[in-house]
Amino acid sequence: MNAKSWSKRGIFVCSSAALLALSACSSGGGANGGNTAANIEQKNMSGSGSGGKQAITMSVVSTNRFLQQAEEKFEAANPDIDIQIKESHTVPQDGTGRSSIRGGYDPATIEKHVTTVNAELMNGNASDIIAVDTLAYSKYADKGLLTDLTQYMSKLNAEDYYMNVFDSLKYKDKLYTITPAVSTGLWFGNKERIEGMNLDPKAWTWEQFAEKMGELAKAGGDPAVQWMPTDMLLIDRVSAEAEKFINLSDKKASFDDKTFIDLLNQIKSFYDQKIFQEPQMTGGVSKAVKIGEKLSRKEAFLPSVFMNISSVTFGQMVFDQPQIFSPPKSGSAEGNSFKSTILLSINNKSEKKEAAWKFLQFLLSEEMQSSRELGGLPVNKKAIDGQVKEMEQMEGAPKPTPEDVEMTKGLLADLKRSGTIDPKIETIIKDETAPFFEGQKSAEDAAKSIQNKVALYLEE
Predict the structure, then answer these.
(1) What's the rounded Cα separation, in Å, for the pair 38 and 89?
(2) pLDDT tens digits for 40-71?
(3) Domain carrying residue 270
(4) Total domain count, the chain
(5) d(C-alpha 44, C-alpha 84), whole Å
(6) Are residues 191 and 140 in the same domain?
(7) Do 167 and 275 belong to one domain?
(8) How confident is the model at residue 403 (pLDDT cuts 50, 70, 90)?
(9) Is 305 found in the same domain as 352?
């Protein structure tokens, strides 16, 4: 990616970074005192922890403060168990001593984790708990390498959790992985610009978006929508409608169908019509957050990421008259899609499944779900209620309105589609569509290339 592309991408990332600053949560997944594979090998050669404790190993791409905090608290409450987190990659720390990742993991880092996990599974020394968000976990499930967690989840009080999230993670009616936190799309509308458009914040479509924002863009003046890169919008759209294009159960792809070709052309039209305009300046949102100014932005919509209940108040800093919207949907789409901060599974060959589940269950507890280090939206309802109450009592900070709270809780309850795409498939989609968005390849040719490569990958 050239410097110009990174510069433009930074404008969109700036908005997200500012919103995360409001949340005061450490969602970066970097190292901060975690164990490397070498440390664990030396510490755990006999399969037991220090002082004769039962060792539970967990393999992740990179650890983070939430996992480390959970490790510390869990071991304090369970002195007979030693949690050992194994990293495939150590992330550099920033000046504050807090680890950070910008832009996610690069392909080489992901490949290293995949190679490490595969080798350990083949050698019979894989960790008890495995992070599978960067793996094609359906393939591992098909080979009987992951434990069905349904029986464990059934022992929890379903009323305490957003069970719709876990239902969405099921593969072939079995639950092979869980997530402690999620994120989803959250759009802020500017009432001054969208008045009279008759858009339903809970159920509006991309067709309505194209029509109404196209009219604004054609009229000229202020930008219609906060800019975001084409590949980011495309991946968001594919993630939200993944079941249309990828059938993991049957190992089939449908990227050469008219539906995907139409999607490509529609997204390109948004940029051709200047609905999404390239930014001309940087720093606006981050400056406002730092000094507490009100931005009074003029766009009709600002797409964002919902990662913390405090995110809902960001609109009050962006627009004079904000309104929360769920992202637009395709006409037939049911519910909203979400992405998991991390997906954790239990090695089916582990002899310590009960203890491993005990730790995963602790990650879902109200105590850990209420942690400021969670890095996403809790899947525990009581933790959400606690966040709302904390915000309402916080002095000097924007307060969510009752309508905001109702809307956001509705969004969480309506998360029905996992938008976490296999990293390799995501890379294929980005690489093969780049020439199309640059006008060098037709949508049909791009779709055909994606179809061939994804189909081949699914058959591996």
Answers:
(1) 12
(2) 444 443 445 666 899 999 999 999 999 999 99
(3) 3-20+183-337+420-459
(4) 2
(5) 9
(6) no
(7) no
(8) confident
(9) no
Q: By the 8 A CB rule, do 412 and 379 touch?
A: no
User: Minimal CA–CA distance to 9: which of 279, 287, 306?
Assistant: 279
- CATH number of the domain where residue 254 is located: 3.40.190.10
- pLDDT range class, residue 423, cuts 50, 70, 90: confident
Q: Is residue 263 part of a domain?
A: yes
Are the C-beta atoms of residues 341 and 306 closer than 8 Å to each other? no
Q: Same domain for 435 and 364?
A: no
Please give the pLDDT value at position 12: 52
Q: Give me the half-sphere count of Cα atoms (radius 13 Å) on the Cβ side of residue 45.
A: 2
3-state secondary structure the chain: CCHHHHHHHHHHHHHHHHHHHHHCCCCCCCCCCCEEHHHHHHHCCCCECHHHCEEEEEEECCCCHHHHHHHHHHHHHCCCEEEEEEECCCCCECCCCCECCCCCCCHHHHHHHHHHHHHHHHHCCCCCEEECCCCCHHHHHHCCCECCCHHHHCCCCHHHECHHHHHHCCECCECCCECCEEEEEEEEEEHHHHCCCCCCCCCCEHHHHHHHHHHHHHHCCCCCECCCCHHHHHHHHHHHCHHHHEECCCCEECCCCHHHHHHHHHHHHHHHCCCECCCCCCCHHHHHHHHCCCCCCCCCEEEEEECCHHHHHHHHHHCCCEEEECCCECCCCCCEEEEECCCEEEECCCCCHHHHHHHHHHHCCHHHHCCCCCCCEECEHHHHHHHHHHHHHCCCCCCCCHHHHHHHHHHHHCEEEECCCCHHHHHHHHHHHHHHHCCCCCHHHHHHHHHHHHHHHHHC
What confidence tier does 187 reach under pLDDT thresholds 50, 70, 90?
Answer: very high
CA dist 316 → 189, 222, 288, 328, 358 (Å)? 11, 19, 12, 21, 41
Claim: this prediction has a pTM higher than 0.85: no
Angle between helices 206-219 and 258-272 (to 10 degrees): 20
316, two tokens:
């009050």
Residue 134, in any domain of the structure: yes
pLDDT at 451: 98
Token readout for 207 is 């067709």
Do residue 80 and residue 226 come from a single domain? no
Identify the burial level of 50 via C-beta atoms within 10 angstroms of its C-beta, where 0-12 means exposed, 13-18 middle and 19 or more buried. exposed
At residue 142, φ and ψ (nearest 5 deg) are -60, -30
Please report whether residue 394 resides in a domain: no
